[in-house]
Design a protein that fits this description.
alpha/beta; about 500 residues; binds pyridoxal-5'-phosphate; 6-stranded mixed β-sheet; 5-stranded parallel β-sheet
Length: about 500
Amino acid sequence: MQYVSTRAAASAASSSPSNFSDILLGGLAADGGLFLPTAYPQVSGAELDAWRKLSYADLAYEVLKKFATDIPDAELRALTAKTYTKEVYRNARAGEKASQITPLRVLEEADGRKLVLQGLSNGPTLAFKDMAMQLLGNLFEYTLAKTGAQLNIFGATSGDTGSAAEYAMRGKQGIRVFMLSPHKKMSAFQSAQMFSLQDPNIFNIAVEGVFDDCQDMVKAVSNDLPFKAAQKIGTVNSINWARVVAQVVYYFRGYLAATGSNDEKVSFTVPSGNFGNICAGHIARMMGLPIAKLVAATNENDVLDEFFRTGVYRVRKSAETYHTSSPSMDISKASNFERFIYDLVGRDGERTRALFHKVETQGGFDLSGKPGSDGDEFKKVAQYGFQSGKSTHQDRLDTIRDVADDYGITIDTHTADGIKVAREHIEKGVTMIVLETALAAKFNETILDALGVDAERPAGFENIEALPQKFVVMSADVAKMKAYIAANTGL
Ligand SMILES: *Cc1c(COP(=O)(O)O)cnc(C)c1O
């Protein structure tokens, strides 16, 4: 399986493709595009039938094998077996089986309409990011061990990504993590999750500033190419291809667990921000998984909902980005969206490059087909199954209450956005699966507002805020940051 940049010229696409291991540790392609396979691998009905009986780890092996053709089979199987265990995904709730890794829960079944929740948040940090990041940690360690190389992961987080990365990389040979977060701006639970890690390869840096200051520091360090090379700096952000592929697996799993035969279709509703999660659903559908609709649910930051309603992609300025009670979806632009647009415009790299150049220079593009627009491909979006909807703070509170009253479970704020939007798109005869992207305990402040009681915490998290914490506080000073990194990489 070979990979190509979404911005590659047709001539370059055939001449310089890369394999899975080449792009594993990288981020953007050299031309600023994102990597995609030169063609999506296909899944036959016979394969789907055989996959119905598999454990999650074995299913992950089968799906990944189609993409990571340059990793020997036995080694890939060992990696998935080590990643998807009931010990790692142990935070299943009462009534769920931890061994299923992403258990399904039927919320509602009446008059041909069925609403199901797929739990993706039973991993160590209680959010779906563990599903991919845990695999990435093992893949990185495996790859680095082969070459004896070292990798220093440097990133900024306002919550879920940073903690998922740290829990995936803790104790891993050859890897260190330097994670910036805005000092005193994360919830007590989120900072405790990260800062209580005592592993010597984890470095938490609390920056005196806001999240944007942290991101600016990451950019400044990343733009210093000699420093980056000398210090072996890498990232694990949501455009990483291996993360996207790892997420493809649970769409197969959800489909197979919700259906009895391949004649059935299901739809998915996905709480969306950077379009990484739902992009994996798009890829599963392109591989032949019988998905009817892929519904993107957004919060007040409705960049994606706007595109799927109108064909206009208009990124927001940071001052126009709302801070909401589903903060992991507070994005001004959707960093994985380019992968879908590349498919939508017929895999034309030059066209994709022009459209995203326009995003950089003019803040967006318009594919509505109206006079003066940049194209008319919006009319093809329905062919790809995409639909969308939007949810507000009030919707979130109402949905959390309804779900608690009607089904006796407490959902988190992002999942509430998903359920609110899913209800608007559910059809007779097609099971609607909502992806549960976090557990409620992570966003307790809003749960308390909605229900008047605290969200239940999984075992082991009861006193997390009281654990000793390891972090340094630093001003938003790039020179100091570089000195700190250099002093701690041992390079
Ligand atoms: C990251 C995240 C999302 C958004 O996922 P994308 O892949 O960025 O679309 C939604 N919910 C939670 C809880 C998250 O952590």
